[in-house]
Amino acid sequence: MTYTVEKCLMTGLPNFALDAVKYVIAHESGNPNNCGPNALENEIAYMNRNKANAFTSHWVGGGGKIVQVAPVGKLQYGCGPKGNPLSYAQVELARTNDKDQFKKDYAAYIWLLRELAKEAVIPVVLDGTGNGIKSHRWITDNLKGTTHRDPYSYLVSMGISEEQFRKDILNGLDKPQQIVKDDDIMKFTNETTKAAVRDYLKQSVEKGKINKSWLEKFDQDTMTSGDFEGLKIIIGQR
User: Fold this and answer.
1) Is the pLDDT assigned to residue 68 strictly greater than 70?
2) Is 6 helix (H, G, I), strand (E, B) or coil?
3) How many domains is the chain built from?
4) Does one domain contain both 162 and 192?
5) DSSP state letters, 155-196
6) What one-character-per-residue DSSP string does 85-138 give?
7) Does 177 fall in a domain?
8) pLDDT value at position 215?
9) Per-residue pLDDT tens digits for 99-128
């Protein structure tokens, strides 16, 4: 399924370049007092009034509607001074108390986060190592400069666990779920070893010995030990 992105860009926004394109940020409004049928419109209006202090590029809500309110690829004020200069796009999810509406909003939210990551040419993986889609909580825990921990509490309250959210980002909602036994996933005893393996794969991609998808699989933490052993043979033969 695809969605129409309604463009309603706010005026008077700052026009600052990013330091780098590393992330797409997943947010939710954090506003339990705005869950009614006009929650999406209310949130956009509030953001427009307060854009000097905080704004993001997209809003999702109202039964699966997507509204872009600021340009992508430009500095947004959504996840603190450490994360903002690295974030291609930042997506807010308006709240609802209606479980049926939430399902539609969630489907649009997943689709948009995945599409923006593909557009930015970063891994479609949530809160993994390296570049990718990051929750606001990941920014708080890893980059600092902010204290928000969304969107997990709201998603859990609507029946979406952290694990389900991660899987839905990885697979999308229109595809069969990828099942990888955790026991088969490559394990590392330290970050230095993991970084060395990633560098080995990155160099192999740059030399044309393996497809880029293998590096993405490594970044998504779905590469098995068997995958890696087979890749070493392929790389050695090329």
Assistant:
1) yes
2) strand
3) 2
4) no
5) HHHTT--HHHHHHHHHH-SSSPPP---GGGB---SSHHHHHH
6) GGEEEEEEE---S-HHHHHHHHHHHHHHHHHHHHHHT----BS-SSSEEEEHHH
7) no
8) 83
9) 999 999 999 999 999 999 999 999 999 999
Query: How do 58-61 and 65-68 pair as beta strands?
Result: antiparallel
Query: Residues 155, 207: one domain?
Result: no
Residue 176 forms part of a structural domain: no
pLDDT tens-digit map of 225-235: 767 766 776 77
- Is the domain of 149 the same as that of 219? no
Residue 228's nearest CA partner among 207, 199, 201 is 201
Joined together, the tokens standing for residue 32 give 């339990």
**Are 48 and 148 found together in one domain?**
yes
What's the pLDDT at 123? 94
Strand partners, 58: 68, 91
Based on the domain organization, do 159 and 206 belong to the same domain?
Answer: no
Return d(Cα 126, Cα 167) in angstroms, integer: 8
For range 19-33, the mean pLDDT: 98
Whether residue 154 is found in the same domain as residue 105: yes
- Residue-wise pLDDT tens digits, 180-199: 455 567 777 677 778 888 88
The verdict on 117 and 34 lying in the same domain is: yes
Are both 111 and 202 inside the same structural domain? no
* C-alpha span between 169 and 109 (Å, rounded): 10
> What range does the domain containing 228 cover?
182-237
What pTM was estimated for this model as a whole? 0.76
**Secondary structure element (H or E) that encloses residue 218, with its range:** helix 212-219
